[in-house]
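ok so heres the complex, two chains, lmk if somethin looks off
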Amino acid sequence: MLKYLIILVDDESTSFCHYASRSDMSNLMAIDTLKKGIRFGMMENLMIQFVFPEKSLPIDYYEAIDTIDHGVLAPAGCPVNADVVVFNDWNSFESFVFSDVGTFVLRTELDKLLEKRNTLFSSLCRMTRINVVLTDIDRFKEEDFVRYDEFLSEFRENIKKLYLQGHQTQCNLLTDRIELDAMNNCNAGVDCITLAPDGNLYLCPGFYYDSEEPIGNLDEGIKIKNQQLLRIDHAPLCRICDAYQCKRCIWLNRKLTMEVNTPSHEQCVVAHLERNQSRRLLAELQDRGLLDKKKEIKEISYLDPFDVKEEW
Amino acid sequence: MEDLYKIQNEQWQSGVAKSITFIVTKDCQLACKYCYLVGKNSKERMPWEVAKQAVDYILDHEAEFKEESVIWDFIGGEPFLEIELIDRICDYIKLELYRRNHHWFNSYRFSFSTNGINYHEEKVQHYIEKNHNHLSIGITIDGTRQKHDLNRVYKNSERGSYDDVVKNIPLWQSQFPGSGTKVTISSADLPYIKESVLHLFELGIPEVNINCVFEDVWKEGDDKILEQQLLELADEIIDNNLYENNVCSFFQEHLGKPLDKKLQNQNWCGAGKMLAVDAAGLFYPCTRFAQYSLRNKKAWVIGNVRDGIDKNKLRGFLTLDRCTQSAQECIDCEVAEGCAWCQGENYDAADTCTAFQRSTAICKMHKARVRANNYYWNKLFRKLELEGIERNRAKEHVKQSQMREIC
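and the predicted structre for the whole thing:
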C-alpha cells in the first residue's frame, strides 16, 4: 500500500540515494503541477516528502508546500530547514555545523569514504542518525569488498564506543539490522512513488533521470505494470535473505541485472558485509549488557545468496 | 543401431551439457510464415575472427563452464549456408580441446537444426562424414506437402520447399537412424495435424516432436480444431498399433496434472544456462534474446567475446522459478503439468522489460491438448489391458518421447 509521495520540485533536486541527479536538466516544476501534486497526495492519503535543490525556490512554492504536513530533504547549503540534510560531497560535510538532533545522508564513493572516514567517525556524536550511501557500488571489484569490510569493522568500533558513552547514533550500515526482524527496504513502487518536474509519476527519482517509462500522471493516476515484481515475495533472492537493512534498490537492480526484482552481486555482498558487521556489533553490545540477549543474527557462510541458491 | 542414435539425439547428456549456440548467419533460403525470427537478413554472417574469439573466451574460462559436456549448436537462419565456416570452427574447437587437455575433450557434440534443403550437397556431406560420431542433426519437415508448403516457402517466391526437403529424408535417416523431426503448429496448420504426423511416420521418421507456437496467434475456436485433430490422431495411432514404433510428443503420459508449488517450481526452459553468440560477437542467454528474434523489446545482451559475460545479467534467469513468473491462474491450474513457455517470448510479450512475466497465449491450446491426451492414454491403456498386458507393464509397449517442448 502506498504511503509516501516524493516530489522532486526541480531537476536539480538533490539525490538522496544511489542514483545521480542529471546536471544537464534544470527544469523547475510548474507551480500548478506542484499544487496538483500536493492535492493528489492529500487525496491519496500519502505523506509528502519534498526534495529540494540547493538554490532557493520562488516564494509561492514555499507557500504551496506549507499547505500540507510534509517532510523536506535538502542538500547541505540549501537555505531551508530540512528534516534530512544530504551531503553530496565531503567539502559540504566538513564545513557543516552539526547539531545533535539531525538526520543526515552522506553520498560518497568508496575511495573518498575510506580517505575521509575519520571525519565521519568524529562527527557521529553530533548526529541522531546518518545514512551512508555508496554511489559507486556498480563499479565495485572484489578487492573493494575487502576494503569496505575493513571500513565497516573500524566503523563498528566507533559506534560501539559511542554506545558505551551513552550516545546511540543510528546508522543504516550497522545499527538498522540489529533493530529489524523483517525486510525494511526502499520499497519504491510499493510504499512510495515519485512525482517528477515533468508532471509524471515514476517508481523512484532514478527511473525519472534514466528516462524510463512513467507509471502514471496526476490526471490519470497510477498504473504500475508488473507491480508484483516490486514486492519481496516476487524477488527470489531477497525473499530468503536476512540482510534486512539492505536498500534492495530496484533502480540499481534494473541497471545492473535488468530485472527490478533481482539484486546484483555487488549489492548482495555489500549488504551482507554490513549484516555480518552488525552481527558482531550486536554480540559486543550484548556482552556489555547494552542490548537484549534474545536478539540474534545467525552466522552464515555466504556473502551472496545467489551462491547458495541450490540449497534453497 | 537405433538405440545408439537415440542416445545421440538432442537429449544427449541432458542436464549436464552446456549448450553453446553460434548464430552463424541470419540468412535463410526460406521465409516460413510462422518464423519468430523477425530480423532475418543476408548481411549478418559471422566472421571467422568472431567465432574464434568466442571459442577462445569459452575455453579460456574453463572454470566457469563446469558442465561435464558441451553441445556446440549452430543455427541461423539456415546454418548449412555457412558450412565452410562451421567446418573451420569445429576443427578449431577439436584442436583446442585437445591442445588444452580440456575436460570437454571427447565429451562434445555438434548439433544442427536445418531446413534440409542443401543437406545432400558435397560440402555438407563431407562435414557429416568428418564429424559423424559427434553429430546430431534434425531436419525440419512439417508433414504432408500441403501442410509443409503452407508455411515453409522460399523467400520472394512463395514456392513451397517440401519436394526439396523430402528427397533428403532417406539420406538423413540412413546416416542418423531414428532421428526425430520437429514440427511447429500455428493457427493455419491446425486442420493438417493428423495427416501430417501420420505422413512423417510413413516417411520413416519415428519421432515427431511437435508443439504449438508460443506467440499470441490463436483465434477463437482454434482449441476445438486442435482437440479434434488430436483425438483423430490418437485413434489412428492406437488402432493401427503405431505407438509401438513411433512417438508423437503431443501425447505424454504425465501431462495435465496439477503442479506442487514447492516441489515442482522449477523453470521450464534453460535460458541463462545456455549461451548464444551472434555475428557481432555479442552474448545472449539464448538465441531468442537476440534482436532478430524480438518484435517488441531490445536485445538482452549479457556480454561479448572481448569483455566476457556480465554475470549480473544472468542472475534473473538463474533464479527464475515457475510460480514467481506465473499468474495466480497458472499457479492454481488443475492441468498445469506440461504447459510450456518460452522465456524469450515471455520477455518479448511482457508489459515491462522482464523475463518474469509468463505469457499465457498458449493456455487454451494446452487445455485442448490435455483433453486429447487424457483420451489417448485412457484408450491405449484399456486396449493394452484387454490384450492382457498389465497396466504397470504397459509403458514398456509404448514408445515415449524423451523430448520436452521445443523452442
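quick notes: The longest helix of chain A spans residues 142-164. thats all i got rn
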